[in-house]
Amino acid sequence: MKYKVINNSQVVFTGTVQPKTSGRVEIPDSVKIGGKTFKVTAVSVNALKNMKYIVSVKIGANVTTIGANAFRGCKGLRTIYIRSKKLKGVGKNAFKGIKSTARITVPESKRKAYRKLLKHKGQGSKVRIID
What we know:
The chain is mainly β. Helix content is 6%, strand content 34%. The chain has a single domain (2-130), classed as Leucine-rich repeat, LRR (right-handed beta-alpha superhelix).
C-alpha cells in the first residue's frame, strides 16, 4: 500500500503496488510508519483507477473523504465495504466503471445519509447500497 503523510497524525491512501495474485484491497483504520501511528483519513484522487483485477475493497473507519475517480475503471469491483461513520465527501465519478451489479455495504446507522452522499458518483443504476 502507498500512503502520503499530510500532518502529524493523518495519512491519505494513494494506491497500491499492483499485485497479480490478490483482488482484495483493505484500507486500514490506521498505519504505522517509522514507528509512528497515523490515521488513514482519505482515499486520494485516482487511488485505484483502472485496476481491473480488484474484486473487493474495505474502507477503514477513519476515512472522511473519497477522491474523484478513486475506483474508476475497476471493472471487477463487486463489493465495497465502508466501515467509516465519518464519511463527508465522495468525489465525482469515484465509482464509475465498477461492476454493474456491485454492492456497497455501509453502516446501518448511516444508510440513509450515505445513499444520498453516494448518489450519482458514477456507479450504474443496478449497484445497491445496503447495510
